[in-house]
Amino acid sequence: MKIALLGYGKMGKVIERIALERGHEIVLKKDEFSTYDGLSTADVAIDFSVPTAAVDNISNCFHANVPVVSGTTGWLEHYDEMISLCNEKKGAFISSSNFSLGVNIFFELNEYLAKIMSQLDSYKVTMEEIHHTQKLDAPSGTAISLAKGVIENSQYTNWTLDEAQNNEIHIEAKRIGEVPGTHTVTYDSPVDSIELKHTAHNREGFALGAVIAAEWLAGKTGIYSMKDVLNLK
Ligand SMILES: NC(=O)C1=CN([C@@H]2O[C@H](COP(=O)(O)OP(=O)(O)OC[C@H]3O[C@@H](n4cnc5c(N)ncnc54)[C@H](OP(=O)(O)O)[C@@H]3O)[C@@H](O)[C@H]2O)C=CC1
Ligand SMILES: O=C(O)C1=N[C@H](C(=O)O)C[C@H](O)C1
């Protein structure tokens, strides 16, 4: 399969290695100043860039009729626009705040736990995410997805980085050294606590998940999620 890499930073480089190991060919490595030359020859594009570049990258894929897998976080305010463009161009799209198998299992557990805890007034939920100091966005896309998973299954209505008021979920975003990504969901009561925690040991899980998603998406049309790829629906 011919793959275009949109973003060739920390993630792009790990994705390149895993894609080559799985027998794929890289036809474009786009960073900030390079062009999209080669994009139209790709079977699929994988976007791990920066919040300000994701919309251009994804739009260019739809215009070039190339299926696109996007892992970039911090551009959610343009999500509906990209969905409309995908539908208009009859494109193929998967975006996820986290492509690792472990985090996608964690998402399922988070939703299940939220349903149970929604019946118990004595517990209050909070979230913590820890990432490396080069990360541009806060809170992480994964923390936002976790908060949405709770909101859709409980009485909580929104998340905040500030002190939580009624029905708000507080997210603590920490930036420390080279941490690849640690997320914790905590339910705390006066008598005990329950914690769900995922710790990434490196970037391999994110990158492998993105390559698997790209293999799954190539040749398809439509808008999908990691639930489709991993058969979690
Ligand atoms: N969904 C998931 O599973 C995961 C998502 N992420 C997300 O992926 C994104 C990338 O992370 P990471 O690799 O660590 O970040 P890096 O900062 O290491 O890499 C970002 C890359 O994007 C490039 N870039 C900047 N502008 C453009 C542009 N206009 N077009 C294409 N590329 C551009 C940069 O180029 P240059 O070097 O020239 O500046 C750089 O190569 C982040 O949003 C992060 O949150 C990260 C891990 C997992
Ligand atoms: O920027 C990162 O590094 C990561 N970003 C994603 C996010 O914002 O959730 C996923 C992962 O935690 C690593």
UniProtKB/TrEMBL annotation:
The residues that the entry says bind NADP(+) are 30
- Lineage of this protein's species? Bacteria, Pseudomonadati, Bacteroidota, Flavobacteriia, Flavobacteriales
GO MF, one term, reads: 4-hydroxy-tetrahydrodipicolinate reductase
Q: What is the species of this protein?
A: Flavobacterium lipolyticum
Q: Which InterPro entries match?
A: DapB_C, DapB_N, DHDPR_bac, NAD(P)-bd_dom_sf
The alphabetized UniProt keywords are: Amino-acid biosynthesis, Cytoplasm, Diaminopimelate biosynthesis, Lysine biosynthesis, NAD, NADP, Oxidoreductase
The name of this protein is 4-hydroxy-tetrahydrodipicolinate reductase
EC number, as in UniProt: 1.17.1.8
Q: How does it assemble?
A: Homotetramer.
Which catalysed reactions does the entry list for this protein? (S)-2,3,4,5-tetrahydrodipicolinate + NAD(+) + H2O = (2S,4S)-4-hydroxy-2,3,4,5-tetrahydrodipicolinate + NADH + H(+); (S)-2,3,4,5-tetrahydrodipicolinate + NADP(+) + H2O = (2S,4S)-4-hydroxy-2,3,4,5-tetrahydrodipicolinate + NADPH + H(+)
Chain residues that bind (S)-2,3,4,5-tetrahydrodipicolinate: 132, 141-142
Domain annotation Dihydrodipicolinate reductase C-terminal: ranges: 102-230
Q: Which family is annotated?
A: Belongs to the DapB family.
